[in-house]
Amino acid sequence: MNRFVFCVLFILISLAGKSQTSDIPDISGDRPGMATPPALAEPKTIQVETGFSYEQSHLDNSFRETILYNTTLLRFGINKNFEIRLHTDFAGVRTDSLTVTGFNPLGIGTKVLLFEHKGILPRTSFLFNLTLPWIGKKEFRPSNLAPSFYLLMQNNIGEKFSICYNVGLEYDGETVTPREFAAVCLGYGLTEKLNVFVESYNWFYTNSGPGNFADFGLAWLPRHNLQFDISGNVSFREISKYRMISFGVAWRIPD
Predict the structure, then answer these.
(1) CB 35 within 8 A of CB 184
(2) Are 130 and 109 in contact (CB under 8 A)?
(3) Which end of the chain, N or C, is more open, meaning fewer C-beta atoms within 10 Å of its C-beta?
(4) Rounded CA gap, 185 and 224, in Å?
(5) What is the pLDDT of residue 59?
């Protein structure tokens, strides 16, 4: 799997070639929040988003610990309205009865810009992801193809505030009934290079109650094509029984 990811990255870098960056805006990463902004990777660039996260849960009287030693999302900008995506993680999962380490299934997808921001109308994109059942650690793979669909929207309020909101449907590759996803994220620019955010994200299940969570964090842009981030997550159900922390980097190639 490592060879596959690095080979894909090398090919995409070769395709991108050289480009002028004087008029390219600052990088906009899908990380660190759970809500995904509608911004696309710049045309003829590759955006590498990678990081580490630690999650521990004692919800529903069961223990689960998940460590993403490396989570990697590759985004290749085709044009201003379209990008393609590849995603995988190297994960370790420990429960009351199981300990497994290996690669999560490979995910492929696309993000398509539908509308630009105009007045009160939000900038809107459509995101499609497809998790493949043939690649990755056997214990992590779904039995069937697992698609997910999202509408991604964002409004800017002045020069410093933004509100990003998502709605979507996610299939797990095991059942025919999807779970619903919704998220709202508020962002604020402390400076030109430092942004903070707080968000609520939620999953809704047919046969059980919703999963309600919140996270908060910051992103620092030392260069226009480079972002570092850190964030923390909690559960609204029982704050003392769930925690997650993550940090990572997003890098756009070429500069």
Answers:
(1) yes
(2) yes
(3) C
(4) 22
(5) 74
Q: Cite the beta strand spans of 119-178 per DSSP E.
A: 123-131, 146-157, 161-170
Beta strand ranges found along the chain (DSSP E): 46-57, 64-79, 82-95, 99-103, 107-115, 123-131, 146-157, 161-170, 179-189, 194-204, 211-223, 226-235, 242-253
* Contact criterion met (CB below 8 Å) for 224 and 211: no
Q: What is the pLDDT, as a whole number, of residue 208?
A: 62
Q: Which CATH architecture has domain 2-253?
A: Beta Barrel (2.40)
Convert the pLDDT of each residue in 203-233 to its tens digit. Answer: 998 766 578 999 999 999 999 999 999 999 9
Domain range list for the chain:
2-253
d(CA 19, CA 202): 40
Q: From CA 132, how far away is CA 106, in angstroms rounded?
A: 6
* Whether the Cβ atoms of residue 213 and residue 198 lie closer than 8 Å to each other: no
